[in-house]
Amino acid sequence: MKKNLNSPAVRFLYGTRPGRILLRWLLQSRMDRLAVRFLCSRFSRPLIGWYAKRHNIQLSKQDSCSFKSYREFFIRRRPNIQLDMQPEHLISPCDGWLSIFPVLADSSFNIKGSSYQLADLLQDEQLAANYTGGDCLIFRLCASDYHHYCYIDNGYQGECHYIAGELHSVQPLACAVYPVYTLNRRCWSLLTTENFGSVVQTEIGALIVGGIFNARQNTRFCKGMEKGHFELAGSTIVLLFQKNRIKLRPELTQKLANTEEVRVQLGEWIGNAEK
């Protein structure tokens, strides 16, 4: 059985009135700047061992000592990545928990009774309309995950569109209280892919620090090549596919019929291109 997906801190900040008051103050006080400066400094090194133990991350003492800051530890790369390179296979762009939602006729998708408008997510009504009837795949990265993400196919990437926003948690309780995908800091780019058509990939920052770093824009890319990484906190990736472009593997579809999310890993085969 899956553990409670909400940390004690998130249950307090989003599930209690005093917590929500404190959260409002944190979001308005620019504490993110102080938090980032601390987590990038050598003074944050003691957090590494605590964080690894809390989230069951296997880390040797030698590895722990090799990081100069918590930031260096958090953006460590995933060893022994195995990518499914079949052209027609859709792969997961990251480690995390996958959920899928249909994009409705009004270019929206629903999560736990909350309606999200693609135009609000992208701040581009014309682009959002192109995904009516398509699929919205959401990958929620957890604290224990590696926070690098890759391209799902060969193709061409356009400009990175950064949208300033708040920095709410992306854990389920926060998503039930606030429309975090359209409130949070995020960056989207249009990927013209060889096998899945035009895909919009959006990276969404998370509580307090939410760093998003994309390596390139306006360039060609290859399947499995690193697209970028998150820094300092768990985050989310949203992939938008046009109508009749993908079909999830039957095993995943069956699992998602019984649960809200399924566990996937970077480079894992999760679906197929529909021609």
How would you characterize this protein structure?
There is one protein chain. The mean pLDDT is 87. Strands 2, 5, 7, 8, 9, 10, 12, 14 and 16 form a nine-stranded antiparallel beta sheet that branches. The protein has a three-stranded antiparallel beta sheet with strand order 1-17-15. It has a three-stranded antiparallel beta sheet with strand order 6-13-11, with no helix packed on it. The protein is built from eleven helices and 17 strands. The chain has 275 residues and is α+β, with helices and mostly antiparallel strands. Helix 1 (8-15) crosses helix 2 (17-28).
How is the secondary structure organized here?
Elements: H1 8-15, H2 17-28, H3 31-39, H4 46-54, H5 61-66, H6 70-74, E1 89-91, E2 96-102, E3 108-111, E4 114-117, H7 118-122, H8 125-129, E5 135-140, E6 148-150, E7 155-157, E8 161-163, H9 172-177, H10 180-183, E9 186-193, E10 197-204, E11 211-214, E12 219-221, E13 226-231, E14 236-241, E15 246-248, H11 250-256, E16 262-264, E17 269-273
Antiparallel strand pairs: 1-17, 2-5, 2-16, 3-4, 5-14, 6-13, 7-9, 7-12, 8-9, 9-10, 10-14, 11-13, 15-17
Helix pairs in contact: 1-2
